[in-house]
Design a protein that fits this description.
By secondary structure, this protein is an alpha+beta fold. The protein is 17% helix and 39% strand.
């Protein structure tokens, strides 16, 4: 492997010092390395990284920042079908597993081809008002349907494969991938799922009932969540959020249809830390 593209979170590497050091190391070792020149939201085709600027023969996209930067990069470049490699500039992450101290040994392994490629399931969500599509996007971690505005309970009606499942009076609902099971879903009481699995996890946020739990569904299922009426039968406002970033406003009667995306995120792993080891360290530090 010798053709790289670097995406950097400029907030964590403000002077691009680490970025420059990595690019210099790669070039000194006979590699081609392009560096992303900007990281700003633009238009509807991408959020932070313009995939059209990535050379077609790129073999690896190095993402500098943390898990959040990895999520942003994954959503923007997934259709390029290029594996991502995360370097964490903050605390230990589940996606960006390599820290500053391990950068150069990790780069050496990449150049030598000493790695494995993991494929991670993604979700696609489409928001409808009647038959009209209000918006759609993909997510690597989760799609969250929540209230907008005042702190009040919202009613959510849930369907699986077109069949009514249940209703929640809650602050929101998280539909998560296995990758996202260690994120917002976990903090809301959801289970931890190995990232290599293929399934969807439905977890309510602060439900107003004593017996509500997360539910796990096969990846092939289709989940529909409808915004219900408010406590006084008035119209409620909600929002669908994709990986905590892109949002689509919703109101009572709107539905979001969530299913397994046709694309997957590819992540390069060096196997020096297993998912179990990262999870153990996270649990010790919590």
């Amino acid at each position: 492997m010798n053709k790289f593209y670097i995406i950097t979170n400029s907030e964590k590497d403000k002077e691009l010092k680490v970025t420059g050091q990595i690019a210099e190391y790669l070039r000194k070792n006979g590699c081609i390395c392009h560096v992303q020149q900007e990281q700003k939201k633009k238009g509807d085709s991408y959020h932070y990284t313009n995939p059209d600027l990535i050379p077609e023969d790129t073999e690896c996209i190095i993402v500098l920042g943390g898990d959040g930067t990895m999520l942003q990069g994954a959503r923007d470049v997934v259709h390029k079908n290029i594996p991502l490699f995360g370097i964490n500039l903050g605390t230990l992450g589940f996606l960006a597993e390599v820290d500053r101290q391990s950068v150069y040994p990790a780069l050496h392994k990449l150049i030598e081809g000493d790695y494995e490629v993991e494929e991670r399931m993604m979700l696609k969500g489409t928001v409808y008002r009647g038959e009209k599509i209000l918006g759609e996007d993909i997510a690597l971690n989760d799609i969250v349907i929540g209230r907008e505005g005042h702190l009040r309970v919202v009613s959510f009606k849930n369907y699986v494969n077109g069949e009514y499942l249940n209703s929640y009076n809650a602050d929101g609902i998280i539909i998560s991938t296995p990758t996202g099971s260690t994120g917002y879903s976990l903090s809301a009481g959801g289970p931890v799922v190995s990232p290599g699995a293929s399934m969807m996890i439905m977890t309510p946020i602060a439900p107003h009932t004593m017996n509500t739990r997360s539910i796990i569904f096969p990846a092939e299922d289709v989940i529909t969540v409808e915004i219900g009426r408010g406590r006084h039968q008035d119209s409620e406002k909600g929002v669908a959020s994709f990986d905590g970033d892109a949002v689509v406003p919703m109101v009572t009667g709107d539905k979001i249809v969530i299913q397994k995306a046709s694309v997957k995120t590819k992540i390069l792993k060096l196997n020096h830390l297993s998912f179990v080891e990262v999870l153990r360290q996270k649990m010790q530090n919590s």
